Amino acid sequence: MCGRFALFTPLERLAAQVGASVPDSNLRPRYNVAPGTWIAVMYQASENEQPIIDEMWWGYRPRWAKSTGSQPINARVETVATNAYFKSAFSKHRCLIPADGWYEWIKDSKPKQPHYICRKDREPLFFAGLFAERDDGSMGCAIVTEPGRGRAAEVHDRMPLILDDDSLKHWLAPDITDRETIRSLVRHINANLVEHWAVSTAVNKPAEGQGEELINPA
Hints:
Layout: E1 5-7, H1 11-18, E2 30-33, E3 38-43, E4 52-58, E5 74-76, H2 87-92, E6 94-99, E7 101-105, E8 114-119, E9 125-133, E10 139-147, E11 158-160, H3 168-172, H4 179-185, E12 194-198
């Protein structure tokens, strides 16, 4: 799964990688992004429009589910194209969620021991995501996950679906709606690019810890 991440690369640099525009935003560097908050998301509204970076609520719930519907933060890549809750978004409303790294916890550790997972070269990551309009009119999103690979699997059996650079524009393209076409055009990054290390348990309480020291080795 992916339930916490960090984003501190300037939005302008991220936008340049996909030719996106950056509207005025109050988004600032964050080292402990938690679900149920506003996060930076890249999406393309139509084939003829430029991708943009905007804020979305990290919690996916399509309008038709109304306020009583579940609000998942992740969607499994194995079923996202066929699951009734996600399949429309997979076809028409895909997005990218930029991050510099994410956190996972060693199973059964006491206290819960977080690890920070990122690229060895410290380049930013682009998580595959889905979005939908919520019943209150805002946009909500979920991060697509896949089975853990490479060193990330040492910490958790799931990880975000991280797209390689050549896949970014294809994933955003609203005119590409066919499931098999999407699968043929989109690739995840090489698992050998990723590493991890133990960090402070201050990560466990996002309300108390947001500084850059959170990603330092414990």
